[in-house]
Fold each of these.
Amino acid sequence: MVVAAMSVLAILVTEFTYVAQVNSRMAYDGLDQVRAHYTAKTGLKISLLRLKAFQQVQALVANMTGGAGGAASSLVPKQALNRIWSFPLIFPIPTEIPGLLPSQKEELKKFADSSTLAGNFTAVIESESGKFNINSVLEGYTSSALAPKTSASASPSSTPRTPGAATPSASPSVNPSASPSAVASFNPVEARENFQSLIQSIYDQKAESDPDFADQHRDFRVEDFTDSLFSYIDRTYEKRNSSVQEFVPPKHAPMYSLSELHQIAPLDDELFDLFAPSLTAGLTSGVNINTLQEPTLRALFPKMTQEEAKEFFEFRDSQTEDNHFKTEKDFFAYLAKSTSYYTESQLAEVKKELGAKGIRFIVDENVFRITVSAQVNQARRTLEAWVLMNDPKAEREAAAASSRTNGSASTRQETASGLKITFMRSL
């Protein structure tokens, strides 16, 4: 009986100890999750601070040089200004960087130890306007939806609100010297054709350079993919190919995230990784000439040869000269001078076609995506935020005008920061 009692007690003690250890581990894991979340929020706030610094420095340079395109604007290259936000931020700051002195490494170590920040994080800020808006095939979600209003009669309520887009009252600051593209009535057929040509161009370039990829996806048809995509996001679109199996019912609404592309047949993970870098679900005020990549350029100007596209990027991204375009006019002047097909008369027609597709060009970035990945022990947390950069002065004036119209006082004109998080999610 004594031995039996001791055995039962041993089992009970072992079980109680195990349960206590599990509960303790769960508590510590939960604490690490909370710490990882707030570490990611810290990285997000630092990223917003970098964007605010970029905005203020940009405004200061514009005042000193007489505005963009001024005689002295080349004294401060756009590449130098963009480095304020473009390089990734890693914390703790690596000390194994070539060229650092031992004293500098010691200071960085002291700073990391005194910060009391748990774990580590990586914060990346990306330009969204250099990508193609996947929702631009819908009327009201094109680049012109965030274009500056030229008439007082323009109703702000006509601007849709989607994740990654601004509210109607927050019109983005666009450089006055960057004249907008010709505004034309939206043509959904041309917008769909334009998007399909972009996807086809990306696919063809990959297939030509990678025979294994071409063989593996030889049955993939861009027409079937875009047909399923248009049916998924557009309730007015009638699907043409009913033989393609749909994994989920059509949403009949704009996409809020590119992750929704995984629900479109017949797209697999490899194709998603191919198309996603050139696309965005956020509403932007235009295609940024100074950040767009080759697939987008070739889709917008299909008559441009591969050699001309290569020369374009070598010219724009020169490390020795500031060749970033100051205005849209400079961009079209370059095309007329450096391409064989796009003469001035051809470019006039291209502008009309792009206007019908709802596409306009900008030279200054005002829509950013911040991605912060934080880790504390084994806990990981990722935050994504889409940020719209406005002119604080314009925000205050808009708020004051709104208060006068509505007959009520507005406090936003006192706290306008120029930065607005339009959409954020935690992964």
Amino acid sequence: MTGRIIRKQIPAWWRNVLLILLTGLLLFLSFNRHSKTGLHNYHSEIWGDKAGYYAYLPAAFIHSFNASRFPQGIDTATGNGFRLDSATNRVVTKYTCGVAVMMTPFFLTTHAIVALSDAPGDGFSQPYHKMINVAAVFYLMAGLILWYRVLRRYFSKGISLITITALFLGTTLFYYAVDETGMSHVYSFFLFSLYLFAVQRVFSESGSALKWIILTGLAAAMIILVRPVNAVFLPVIIFLDAATREEISKRISFLLKWEHVLILLFIAFLLFLPQLLYWNYTYDKFIIYTYHGEGFTNLLSPKITEYLFSTNNGLILYNPVLLFGFTGTILMLIRHKDNGRTLAVLLLVIIYLFSSWWNWYYGCGYGNRSFTEYTTVMALPFGYLANTILNRPRKALKWCWIILVCILVVLNLKMIYSWDGCWYGVTWDWNKFLDLLVSPPK
């Protein structure tokens, strides 16, 4: 009775207030992080890969994909993430358009505001840079909300919140949501959360409604359009929570119903059509591999040790709380818990695949960024381990674990705020890594 009275006395809108305050804090952190960097340098929101993802927007809505209409030399000024081909008058970028599609509402709003101000409306002035920070924080917050709702199917409110907080602050997700806001990873994080949320409902007792099939198709298509290699994520998650062969067979049969196949194919065609048209405009082919000279060239000799442990963006060193995610996966396998094998297979596949990329440390960036969006599924083994530890009677074990998690989170944030954008040492440079740990924030 007392518990019910207390719940009734708590205002129903308190969660919305907290979400608004958190959004404001993240926007402040992002704007503050970029306030002293200026434009057209490797710290800015439109530079290098980020410019390559973004280039579709000014090309489509301002310059009509006419290279000669762009500000002169803007491709070089933004780090050569895209190329203005003077010979063909084409705008050339090797990146797919998914990030640009997701930024479109924010870009158009910003462009309308710029039209009423004195700022240049060429798509590259300061307001457009700031718009990217807003878009990233929006998708982060939407992803966090969906992520929480996914986890609530497995854990209590407390365990779900602890898991999300630890993985957000203790991994590269924070960096790519607040610092490198123009990269694809925070957008993929949102889409992964949306896909998990939709798939859960497709296969729940009341989840066969058409809207969940459509939402699953939209999320899946956008995941590929944002970052094609993440297609590997899609089939594995279909089998999440399928504990028996009969359930797996039932799910496959459900997805292969002709009406469902037609819906998914139509959604994919609709979303991929702009990309196919762009490739035809640029390369005179509707389908082409644009990463010339790049690929998974280490498939026979994957750099797994380096990918996981190197001082040059090693996954574990720069995502320290993931140790508990891997530990939780092993514990789930040992105890034969649902999803243990599914998660283990997914982790083995993506670690093998990502460590086989020609550039296994994935260039400049904090930590091994290829894994960032997969933090969503790591929440399941992390949450399982947290639930196991925090429900034990021994308080000493609970507090030791909580303190250790807090230390790893602080360590991650310390390294992020001391990071200069690139690793300038060699593959195994422990002295330089120690400098990163003890150097002051930049």
Amino acid sequence: MKDLTQGNVFNHILRFSIPMLLGSVFQQLYNVVDSLIVGNFLGNSALAAVGASFPVIFVLISMIIGLTMGISVVISQYYGAKDMHRVKKAIDSMMIFVMISGVLVGLIGYLFSEKIFILLNFPSEIIKEAALYFKILIAGVFFMFGYNGVSAVLRGLGDSKTPLYFLIVTTVLNIILDLIFVLIFKWGIAGVAWATIISQAISFFGLIIWLNKKHNFIKINIFNLEFDREIFGKSIKIGAPAGIQQTIVGLSATALTSIVGSFGTETVAGFAVAVRIDSFAMMPAMNVSVALTNFVGQNIGAGKIDRIKKGYYAALAISCGISFILGLIFLTCSKLLVAFFTPDPVVQLVGSQFLMTCSMFYIFVSAMFMTNGVLRGAGDAMAPMLNTVVALWFVRIPVAVIASKGWKSFSLLSFDIHGWSGLGSRGIWWGAPVSWVIGFLLAYSYYRRGNWKNKSLVKQ
């Protein structure tokens, strides 16, 4: 546990961010290893199936992930105020919610798996494999929820290192199981899914065992949990907008994948590979933002507004600096990076076009994440949600559709507008950078207004 209300601001955020960033790198290795093995040993159809499954899974789990963010903010604010009794109640309430929701989401996803992919109009040759992969992963979503919930608790208490240690071990295990299930047992895409589920289950249970031995006051006993409606209500107030925001992100990713799917299997496969690589560029922004959220939570709980502003600028310097470097690497090495995943030249071309388009704008997505991180940590989760709605559904998706497919000729106010055939699949990728720029401008303008300063749960 770490008190973030005292000491050097820059060092706190950097040291808090590094373990989470390393943890995200290892967590992404789950997906990268899956894609490497699938792309090189199972072919384009299986690679496209894995890529198509991810946004659908994200939609189903995004609300829960957002709600655990709300729990983390509540815990950090009470911990900043040194109210340990409410910290314990918040943890118990979170665990009850995670267990129930894990079972429900897993059951719903399993029952409607194949119908989801048919509804999204994916190429027929990938639906069967996508549904099989999805069924196995969603059946084990309980472990994913549990791990994210316990990790959120630790982050709220200022501990970002412990989840990293468990994640390193389970990532190595996932790689070993991938190789065994696919290359030796010949389980195909099902083996990739089973390797991920088994690894996540071990990570979740291992983290609970460690917590129970290390910290008596936050000991988790699933048979003796106390649900506090008031504290959980506060968590929902913060977490529901964050959860809706994550769901909006997931739905937009699904809509985007549907647009990509209309251009064929090779385009879906190239998009799947590029997203895997692109996720590494998103990680610094996401993790420094989470560190900033917990930093803001503890400091607003302690009533230290000036310290929050220093933390915001420190987080911007760290995150934007890393994003600039990664952008240069991806811009210059895009074809080489995509080639690691697939030998197909068409898939390589699609993936490299995605990376070259988006990598020039990583600084904007980083700045957007930092600004929203301040607002969320202060307890003002509604503003980031609305910013996300506008950036994704009013900017990214329309730009992706228009730039890729063009428009037909039409008349407007007595003027004839000539039709345009669009840029093809290349046009889809421009939706992301345009939405990042708009999203940052909206978030920063709200931050400057200062309304977030009055959203703390802890009254000074």
